[in-house]
């Protein structure tokens, strides 16, 4: 019996704190009863906060009485229920008088204010009889409010002392003492207020009592939300309820806890949280709380809390929370059952004649049925858990643990997050401790979990059975709460209605403590007397019994794995092991690789353990040397495959074998296998050792009691009946499980005497103690390393929690994080201390849990140090003797072939080349043998890093694997951890050191060094790589091998290296100076003198006569601070990392001026000068003096590099500009890189110009304009420089014909792309003046005259004739300042888009195009593309007919980051396992293709502007040597066919990249001084852009793509001097002062006796003279101008980034490649010969037979046979082509080809217009928000347009007048039939959209001209790669397949392809397109299965089988059982 109530408390408003000035009202305890605490229940403080959760407040109106239950938890985790009834009491308040009011006269009346204060009556109870507590408080309030005659003291005393509640399952009316039937009675009582009450204790105190709370919660939130809350609570998430009702909060929290039964919630539980304690919501621990809805603002700040709105019926799950749900089938089943219970009318809703059903179901019944569903859900989750309980102790108290890893593995749920979190929770741990004992009182859940498997299988497909079972459980729960069958009518007096509104009601009286105490004392005495009455207190207690075990999970596993493996695989394993132990080593080695591969199967690993155990039992554990090595390799391989699992059965089975197998090293020294198997992370996991220890303890305890039972069984010869656990109904005692034995021992415990009990306890403790000693020895063996100097292995779990073995999978990944962690313990030398600490921690944990005596525990701790010391001493001898063993025979190190002059820096370091993230070379899906890993050595030479070796795979061991890259291309090197790779890759030794080298040639060397290679040699190798990669001087590279540097250059080189070390400081100084300068514009700020040497110098101006070298030297040394503090960038651009290059570019130190070397005659031999002559810029009379009328000249102003050191010595400028004007003009541009003409269009005469960006204004401009002592003239001003700019641009404009006489089709003419109906004639608009001709967009590019008159006729003609005669512009200032008859305002306006013609999104709309223009339509003659920051520096009104177009380009830092991401995508270090981060996704994220697209689009815009419109184009980006060079070069390739030849491409690179000063040394980091800037692949991007054009126009290039790859490789190889140094100045400097050592020169390296330079072009020409290696045999130019597509679907990923050639290394060093393939060429191949080529090993492009090459070689051989002189291959090729009949070119092309060509031009026009419009768009782009829906409208397509959805042609010239659909917002084009299929999101509005795909491609039988781009077929995903193997069908047929989450079963046609190793499925048998592919390499097992939910009806239950892969498990069902077995067998054959 227990008290109903523990305390009664009266809590009222605290007026004292209010008067003391407290800002918030408070409550205080007025009275409490009893006044002294109970001994068993202390009083809980702070209860006043929970009486008014919203705060104590005075109100002006009396409120109705309220009641709620608050739950408090004490320090012992016991819950106390606080029933609170609150009412209002009137309080008279004296109003306060303000301080500034005078005191009133004495005797004056004081007015009072009536307020109402809350008062609470509280009952605190440990029993959850909420309704009874509410009635008791209501009676006290009724007696008070209605002034009943009953004293309140009597009522309170009766509640606290007289009401005694019997325990659960009582009271009972026993019919007699022997009968089992009982009758449950009501507990009747009265507190003396005229009431009559009763309550019923439940039958079981373990089952929660809910009433109808669960039903109300489900009604409030819904089924799905309740399931989510259940999942959140059971997985320890934070849950917060909020409502306007406190009662609802308590009921919701109580209902949620009841759903978790049988688990008990162990975290913070506060159903009603007071507002004053809201900071508790920030606790980091999980909780279930409730707050009032008025605290919504407080909840808004909670980011990791799931919030449930009870009033609104919704829950909110933050994004940062990953809410895991139960398994799909279990969740769906529970959801269906809840629907059946809550919505029973749903199944009858569609019936025509539904039968009447009584729907008046009680809420309490529904509540219990919902709880029954969740109880079944818990049973399904924990099904079979008792078979995974491990028994540690039986007596005196059972000690049981749970093996989570075994449970998850046996149920095939490894990796299931929800169940894993449930099993790791504190609630489940408490459940195991409480319910784990096998002999106890059982409840409903024990029966459910034991029979749930059979119940679910019987209910499958029968919902009525499921509903009946649910109702049965619900009835049981209902009877538990309502055990009495009879009803009882209670009488509870209620207060008078409206009593709370009485004004004159007296306050609640003060109760008499003495009277209350007497009543309580009287009640307690009566309770004692009642307890002595046995008959009255007799209660039928539940009996303890054996807990049912249920069906064992292992029996499922045995059946599922019945045919999980191939018998052939097991037979091979058995044969191999037999050969090993029979010492037939050669025969064993033949089968050994197959056995190692088969160990990936778990069944094979278990079979290996069994076979090895048999040999141990036969006393064959002592092995020979080779036997020992092979057995150890098998054990390591098996452990490595099993190390990532938390199920340790295999490792536990291996432990006795590891300590048994041994070999004899010498007399008295034996080496055991454990010394060679310590590398696995499982040995460092405390969870493993605990699991293994508990398992062995259980076995020994079972043997202890079985031996006793066996004795009894032998004497009595009896059997124990156990029909539920045996097939025949009887089992012997030896077959019983440990739990069954423990149950029997617990049942018999009371029958033993004290001595017998003590003996049992002692025996069990002895077992635990002996096992602890045994496992301490085992741990010493497995933890102490053989070589103690190397430290501990796999020590990452030393300080982690037990069970941290999940991290073991990272041990073989080589990640940086693992490497960082593993060095913590490895670096420590005190290994013994670490091992002692590890073992002591284990011993403490297991012995404490098992109840070992403290004395024994101390003895154990004392033994451990001695065990460790003894073992270390033993291993020391073993280590010494093992080193004397004959070394393993290793393959001979293959020496690499070296180039002439290439020297070895380090001899080969033996190691293994490991596979990386590329699938090439590892076999598997890519096919072919496994070439990696390969065993060999890595070499370091003065030119390359080389690995050369042979594969370890026996099928490919005769091949030679070579992988190398230039050491100058090394991008990043880092150490990797390779400790666990030896086992995973089946290597024969343990490796500690690993190195990963990545190069910018897209090669990756992942090396694991042999154990003979020490860490010192590895570190030396790393240092030497860094030293050669970043030499101190450029002249120490391989390209200058054998060269001698002059002393003067050596001094300068040393001075440069000194200043290079301070670049970081210099950058900071420049940045600081920049901030000071830009801070104001009216004062000067000078830097400290000591920083002068770190700042930029200004290039001195050169007088008309070239000065001497000494004069130049003095001028440079005398440069003042004012002349060198010039910022080379505008003030709006911040300094970046690459700005370090400025210092070296303009160093103050002494430089060499090669004046004597540079002459005009010598410079005429330069390729770029010859290209100038080809373009018509040179005349016969000389360079400096052009003929009269020549508009341009080749200037010598920079012949001595005084104007710009990074420019060529000869540049093309307008003839009208003098050299002095050019010098002044150079100061307007960064780095003095003034505008220079590089190319002229042969037809339109438009010019292509390049320069650096313009200087900004501000302080920098004033410094620029400061007086310079090197000039003799007056000081220059900024206005004078603007005049020079005006002169230059005016000269360019007036010498640009602007397309008037070349083409009528202009870019700005939309006649070609708009329908004819939309083309407006000059007079089509009434308000247009006649004579204002031009098209719409031409009128958009207008010149606003502001309403003034136009310039006088003839002025421009006169000026133009003056310019054409070559006159200077000095007298033409009237063009800018305005002269007589000249309108300066109209002349100053730029011809550009009007602001009103630009839409918000940067596109020109039809409305804008049709707007009225009164101005004269003109086009800009010069378009200047530059950075957006230059728009302020370039004033449009200053320059006539010029237009500045800002363009957003990718800066160099973006290019650097893009290269890093691209290399990780193309050459990953590890396999890409995340399906969401595949190769194409990574390439997309790198933004490399977007950058290529940006280059191509801008170059295409230049093509359109120059070729169609005839306007000149100038590019001015940054410093003019990166992005500018890329665009200018690509534009010339597109417009000039000459540059698409071998000779022309060489000339282009010499001109644009070498002469115009691209910084190859800086961007490629060729010296240590440039290391910090990072590698920038600017030139590589240009080559990729050319590759994209080449791919689309394969007939227009004379060279092939191998030529581009050759350049890409050697521009970073540093083999040649061509791509070295940063400018022509530095190359002239090197040519003058670097001399070739003739004694060390080597022929064949591309060097010439005439000069010391080693030219890459000479090397190319030498190869080209021998063979057409770089010649495009399909070269057939037909079109001069190319217009490639630039959309992403038309771009290809360059195969240079992904190609691999393991046979001979990269083929770009032709001498090495020819030597590597010389063996294959010894015997010439005949046309009929066939040879196998592996694409991942051989160079397919070089190895595949080529018809043209074979024919040319055949012609050469015939010439020799005929005795003729051999001719050049080009001559033979031309003669062969002439022998064919002349081909007549088609005069008319097909319609499709015309459409393709027309759309190519149209697409380019659209892109160009988009660039122009976006550049001139002054409106900022709209921010991206939520995507809107498309707005499709009917649209007429008169030009070829593709559907953006299906990529098919919409309507063009062939189908005139047809309609399509176009989105008015984003321009999405689509067929009308495609509109419903298009995604609804409209990503952006109003952009001129380029077609998403290429044009319609002609068929194969049509002629493809060179002017039509060839768009790649298959442009997305893996469609790019075509399978070369045809489809094979090993087996096929129909199967029913279950879909993914929440999907049903569907019938599919499945095809098993053994050749491709795939299982494909189709919609039907005749479906040509497969719906999905299952890769068989990912398959782990295929096995029979049981029927699952929702399976097709009328199917055989034995025809189910599951296919488990690494990603998911597939469920199948065949038609019949034989068909399923056939599928399983076929798939197993493919797997084996």
Walkthrough of the structure:
The chain is of the alpha+beta class and 2032 residues long. The protein has 62 helices and 57 strands. The strands form 18 sheets. It has a seven-stranded antiparallel sheet with strand order 29-28-27-26-32-31-30, covered by helices on one side. A seven-stranded antiparallel sheet has the order 54-53-52-51-57-56-55, with helices on one face. Strand 52 and strand 53 (1958-1962) form a beta hairpin. Helix 47 (1452-1466) runs antiparallel to helix 48 and helix 50 runs parallel beside helix 53. It is globular and about 135 Å long. The two termini are 70 Å apart. About 20% of the residues have low confidence.
Radius of gyration: 46 Å
Structural class: alpha+beta
On the 0 to 100 scale, the average pLDDT is 75
Residue share in helices? Answer: 25-40%
The major pleated sheet works out as:
7 strands, antiparallel
Point out poorly predicted stretches.
98-111, 174-180, 555-564, 711-734, 796-829, 1058-1156, 1179-1184, 1257-1277, 1299-1304, 1306-1418, 1638-1653, 1782-1788, ...
Which percent range describes the beta-strand content? 5-15%
Number of helices: 62
How far apart the termini lie comes to 70 Å
The shape is globular
Strand arrangement, major sheet: 29-28-27-26-32-31-30
The total strand number stands at: 57
């Amino acid at each position: 019996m227990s008290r109903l109530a523990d305390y009664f408390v009266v809590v009222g408003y605290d007026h004292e704190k209010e008067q003391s000035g407290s800002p918030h009202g408070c409550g205080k305890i007025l009275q409490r009863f009893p006044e002294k605490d109970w001994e068993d229940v202390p009083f809980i403080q702070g209860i006043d906060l929970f009486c008014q959760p919203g705060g104590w407040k005075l109100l002006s109106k009396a409120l109705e009485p309220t009641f709620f239950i608050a739950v408090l938890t004490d320090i012992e985790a016991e819950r106390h229920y606080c029933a609170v009834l609150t009412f209002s009491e009137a309080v008279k308040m004296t109003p306060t008088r303000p301080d500034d009011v005078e005191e009133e006269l004495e005797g004056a009346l004081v007015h009072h204010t009536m307020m109402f204060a809350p008062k609470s009556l509280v009952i605190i109870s440990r029993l959850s009889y909420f309704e009874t507590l509410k009635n008791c408080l209501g009676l006290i309030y009724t007696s008070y409010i209605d002034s009943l005659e009953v004293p309140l003291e009597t009522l309170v005393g009766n509640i606290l002392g007289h009401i005694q509640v019997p325990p659960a399952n009582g009271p009972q009316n026993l019919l007699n003492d022997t009968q089992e039937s009982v009758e449950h009675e009501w507990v009747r009582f009265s507190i003396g207020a005229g009431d009559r009450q009763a309550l019923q204790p439940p039958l079981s105190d373990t089952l929660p009592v809910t009433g109808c709370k669960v039903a109300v919660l489900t009604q409030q939130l819904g089924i799905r939300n309740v399931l989510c809350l259940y999942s959140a609570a059971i997985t320890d998430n934070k849950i917060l309820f909020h409502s306007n009702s406190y009662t609802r909060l308590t009921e919701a929290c109580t209902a949620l806890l009841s759903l978790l039964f049988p688990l008990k919630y162990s975290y913070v539980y506060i159903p009603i949280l007071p507002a004053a304690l809201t900071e508790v919501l920030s606790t980091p621990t999980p909780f279930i709380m409730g707050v009032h809805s008025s605290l919504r603002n407080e909840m808004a700040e909670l980011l990791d809390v799931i919030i449930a709105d009870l009033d609104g019926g919704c829950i909110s799950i933050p994004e940062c929370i990953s809410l895991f749900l139960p398994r799909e089938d279990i969740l769906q089943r529970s959801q269906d059952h809840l629907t059946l219970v809550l919505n029973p009318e749903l199944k009858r809703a569609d019936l025509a004649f539904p039968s009447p059903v009584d729907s008046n179901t009680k809420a309490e019944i529904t509540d219990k049925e919902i709880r029954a569903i969740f109880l079944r859900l818990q049973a399904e989750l924990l099904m079979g858990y008792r078979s995974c309980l491990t028994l540690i102790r039986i007596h005196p108290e059972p000690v049981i643990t749970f093996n989570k890893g075994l449970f998850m593995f046996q149920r095939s749920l490894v990796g299931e997050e929800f169940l894993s979190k449930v099993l790791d929770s504190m609630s489940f741990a408490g459940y195991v401790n409480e319910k784990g004992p096998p002999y106890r009182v059982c409840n409903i859940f024990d029966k459910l979990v034991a029979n749930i498997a059979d119940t679910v299988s019987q209910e499958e497909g029968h919902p009525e059975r499921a509903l009946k079972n649910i109702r049965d459980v619900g009835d049981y729960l209902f009877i538990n709460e309502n055990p009495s069958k009879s009803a009882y009518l209670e009488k509870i007096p209620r207060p008078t209605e409206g009593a709370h509104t009485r004004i004159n009601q007296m306050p609640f009286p003060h109760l008499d403590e003495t009277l209350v105490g007497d009543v309580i004392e009287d009640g307690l005495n009566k309770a004692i007397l009642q307890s002595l009455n046995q008959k009255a207190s007799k209660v039928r207690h539940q009996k303890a019994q054996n807990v049912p075990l249920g069906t064992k999970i292992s029996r499922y596993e045995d059946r599922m794995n019945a045919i999980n493996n191939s018998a052939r695989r097991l037979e091979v394993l058995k044969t191999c092991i037999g050969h090993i132990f029979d010492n037939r080593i050669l025969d064993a080695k033949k089968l050994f690789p197959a056995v190692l591969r088969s160990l990936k199967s778990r069944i094979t690993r278990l079979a290996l353990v069994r076979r090895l155990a048999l040999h141990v039992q036969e006393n064959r554990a002592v092995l020979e040397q080779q036997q020992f090595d092979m057995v150890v390799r098998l054990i390591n391989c098996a452990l490595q495959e099993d190390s990532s699992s938390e199920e340790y059965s295999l490792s536990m089975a291996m432990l006795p074998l590891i300590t048994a197998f041994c070999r004899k090293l010498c007399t008295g020294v034996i080496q055991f296998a454990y010394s060679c198997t310590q590398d696995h992370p499982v040995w460092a996991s405390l969870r493993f050792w605990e699991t293994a220890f508990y398992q062995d303890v259980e076995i020994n305890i079972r043997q202890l009691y079985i031996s006793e039972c066996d004795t009894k069984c032998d004497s009595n010869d009896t059997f124990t009946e156990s029909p539920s656990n045996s097939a025949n109904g009887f089992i012997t005692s030896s077959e019983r499980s440990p739990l069954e034995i423990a149950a029997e021992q617990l049942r018999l415990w009371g029958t033993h005497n004290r001595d017998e009990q003590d003996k049992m306890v002692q025996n069990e403790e002895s077992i635990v103690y002996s096992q602890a000693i045994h496992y301490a020895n085992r741990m010493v063996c497995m933890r102490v390393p053989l070589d103690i100097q190397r430290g501990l292995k796999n020590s990452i779990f030393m300080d982690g929690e037990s069970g941290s073995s999940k991290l073991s999978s990272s041990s073989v990944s080589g990640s940086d994080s693992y490497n960082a962690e593993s060095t913590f313990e490895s670096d420590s030398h005190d290994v013994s201390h670490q091992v002692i600490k590890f073992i002591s921690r284990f011993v403490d944990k297991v012995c404490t849990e098992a109840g070992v005596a403290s004395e024994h525990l101390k003895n154990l701790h004392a033994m451990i140090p001695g065990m460790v010391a003894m073992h270390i001493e033993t291993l020391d001898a073993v280590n010494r003797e093992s080193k004397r063993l004959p070394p393993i025979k290793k393959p001979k190190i293959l020496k690499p072939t070296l180039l002439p002059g290439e020297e070895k820096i380090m001899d080969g370091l033996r190691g293994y080349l490991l596979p990386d993230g590329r699938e090439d070379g590892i076999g598997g899906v890519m096919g072919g043998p496994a070439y990696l890993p390969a065993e060999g050595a890595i070499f370091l030479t003065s030119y390359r890093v080389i690995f050369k070796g042979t594969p370890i795979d026996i099928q490919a061991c005769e091949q030679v694997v070579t992988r190398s890259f230039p050491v100058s291309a090394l991008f990043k090197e880092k150490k990797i951890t390779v400790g666990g790779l030896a086992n995973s890759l089946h290597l024969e030794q343990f490796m500690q050191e690993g190195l990963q080298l990545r190069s910018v040639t897209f090669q990756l060397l992942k090396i694991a060094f042999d154990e003979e290679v020490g860490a010192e040699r590895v570190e030396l190798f790393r240092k030497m790589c860094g030293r050669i990669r970043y030499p101190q001087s450029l002249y120490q590279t391989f390209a200058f091998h054998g060269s001698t540097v002059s002393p003067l250059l050596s001094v300068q080189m040393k001075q440069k290296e000194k200043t290079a070390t301070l670049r970081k400081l210099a950058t900071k100084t420049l940045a600081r100076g920049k901030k000071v300068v830009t801070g104001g514009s009216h004062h000067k700020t000078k830097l400290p003198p000591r920083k002068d040497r770190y700042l930029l110098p200004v290039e001195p101006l050169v007088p008309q006569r070239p000065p001497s070298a000494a004069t130049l030297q003095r001028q440079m040394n005398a440069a003042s601070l004012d002349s060198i503090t010039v910022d080379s960038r505008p003030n709006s651009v911040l300094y970046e990392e690459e700005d370090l290059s400025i210092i070296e570019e303009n160093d103050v130190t002494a430089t060499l001026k090669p004046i004597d070397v540079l002459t005009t005659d010598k410079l005429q031999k330069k390729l770029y000068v010859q290209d100038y002559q080809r373009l018509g810029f040179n005349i016969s009379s000389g360079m400096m003096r052009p003929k009269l009328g020549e508009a341009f000249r080749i200037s010598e102003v920079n012949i001595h590099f005084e104007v710009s050191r990074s420019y060529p010595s000869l540049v093309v400028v307008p003839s009208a500009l003098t050299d002095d004007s050019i010098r002044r003009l150079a100061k307007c541009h960064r780095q003095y890189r003034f505008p220079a003409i590089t190319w002229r269009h042969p037809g339109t005469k438009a010019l292509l110009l390049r320069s650096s960006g313009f200087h900004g204004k501000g302080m920098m401009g004033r410094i620029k304009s400061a007086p310079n002592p090197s000039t003799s003239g007056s000081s220059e001003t900024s206005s004078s420089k603007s005049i020079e700019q005006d002169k230059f641009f005016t000269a360019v404009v007036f010498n640009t014909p602007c397309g008037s006489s070349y083409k009528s089709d202009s870019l700005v003419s939309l006649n070609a792309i708009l329908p004819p109906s939309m083309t407006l004639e000059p007079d089509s608009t009434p308000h247009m003046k006649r004579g204002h001709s031009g098209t719409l967009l031409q009128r958009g590019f207008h010149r606003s005259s502001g309403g003034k008159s136009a310039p006088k006729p003839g002025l421009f003609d006169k000026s133009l004739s003056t310019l054409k005669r070559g006159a200077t512009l000095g007298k033409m200032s009237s063009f800018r300042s305005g002269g007589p008859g000249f309108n300066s305002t109209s002349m100053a306006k730029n011809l550009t888009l009007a602001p009103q013609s630009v839409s918000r999104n940067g596109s020109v709309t039809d409305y804008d195009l049709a707007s009225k223009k009164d101005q004269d339509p003109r086009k800009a003659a010069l378009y200047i593309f530059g950075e957006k920051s230059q728009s302020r520096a370039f004033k449009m009104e200053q320059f006539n007919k010029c237009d500045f177009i800002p363009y957003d380009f990718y800066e160099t830092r973006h290019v650097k980051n893009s290269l890093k991401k691209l290399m990780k995508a193309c050459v990953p270090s590890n396999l890409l396992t995340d399906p969401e981060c595949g190769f194409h996704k990574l390439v997309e994220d790198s933004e490399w293709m977007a950058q290529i697209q940006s280059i191509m689009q801008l170059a295409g815009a230049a093509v359109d502007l120059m070729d169609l419109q005839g306007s000149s184009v100038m590019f001015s980006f940054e410093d003019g040597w990166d992005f500018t060079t890329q665009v200018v070069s690509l534009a010339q390739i597109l417009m000039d066919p000459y540059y698409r030849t071998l000779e022309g491409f060489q000339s282009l690179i010499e001109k644009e990249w070498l002469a115009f000063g691209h910084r190859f040394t800086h961007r490629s980091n060729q010296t240590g001084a440039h290391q910090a800037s990072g590698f920038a692949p600017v030139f590589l991007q240009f080559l990729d852009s050319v590759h994209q054009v080449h791919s689309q126009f394969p007939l227009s290039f004379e060279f092939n793509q191998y030529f581009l790859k050759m350049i890409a490789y050697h521009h970073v190889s540093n083999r040649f001097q061509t791509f070295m140094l940063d400018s022509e100045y530095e190359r002239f400097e090197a040519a003058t002062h670097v001399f070739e050592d003739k004694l060390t020169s080597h022929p064949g390296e591309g060097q010439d006796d005439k000069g010391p330079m080693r030219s890459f072009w000479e090397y190319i020409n030498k190869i080209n003279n021998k063979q057409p290696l770089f010649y495009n045999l399909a070269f057939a130019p037909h079109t001069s101008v190319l217009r490639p597509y630039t959309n992403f679907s038309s771009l290809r990923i360059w195969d240079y980034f992904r190609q691999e050639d393991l046979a001979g290394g990269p083929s770009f060093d032709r001498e090495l490649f020819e030597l590597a393939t010389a063996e294959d060429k010894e015997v010439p191949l005949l046309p009929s010969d066939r040879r196998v080529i592996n694409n991942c090993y051989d160079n397919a492009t070089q190895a595949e037979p080529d018809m043209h090459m074979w024919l040319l070689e055949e012609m050469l051989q015939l010439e020799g046979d005929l005795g003729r002189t051999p001719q050049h291959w080009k001559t033979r090729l031309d003669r062969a082509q002439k022998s064919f009949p002349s081909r007549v070119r088609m005069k008319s092309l097909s319609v499709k080809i015309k459409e393709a060509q027309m759309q190519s031009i149209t697409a380019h026009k659209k892109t160009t217009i988009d660039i122009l419009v976006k550049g001139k768009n002054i409106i900022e782009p709209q921010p991206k928000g939520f995507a809107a829906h498309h707005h499709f409208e009917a649209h007429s397509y008169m030009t070829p347009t593709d559907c953006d959805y299906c990529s098919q042609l919409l309507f063009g010239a062939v189908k005139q007048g047809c309609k399509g659909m176009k989105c008015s917002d984003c321009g999405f084009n689509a067929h009308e039939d495609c509109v419903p299929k298009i995604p609804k999101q409209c990503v952006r509005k109003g952009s001129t959209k380029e077609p998403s795909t290429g044009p319609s491609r002609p068929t194969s039988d049509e002629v493809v001209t060179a002017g039509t781009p060839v768009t790649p077929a298959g442009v997305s995903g893996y469609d790019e790669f075509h399978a070369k193997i045809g489809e094979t069908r090993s087996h096929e047929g129909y199967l029913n397949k279950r879909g993914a989450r929440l999907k049903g079963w569907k019938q599919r046609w499945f095809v098993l392809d053994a050749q491709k190793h795939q299982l494909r499925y189709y919609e039907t048998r005749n479906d040509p397109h497969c719906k999905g592919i299952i890769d068989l390499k990912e398959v782990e097992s295929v096995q029979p299965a049981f029927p699952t939910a929702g399976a097709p009806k009328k199917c055989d239950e034995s025809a189910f089988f599951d296919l488990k892969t690494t990603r998911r498990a597939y469920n199948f069902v065949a038609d019949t059982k034989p068909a399923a077995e056939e599928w399983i067998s076929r798939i197993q054959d493919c797997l084996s």
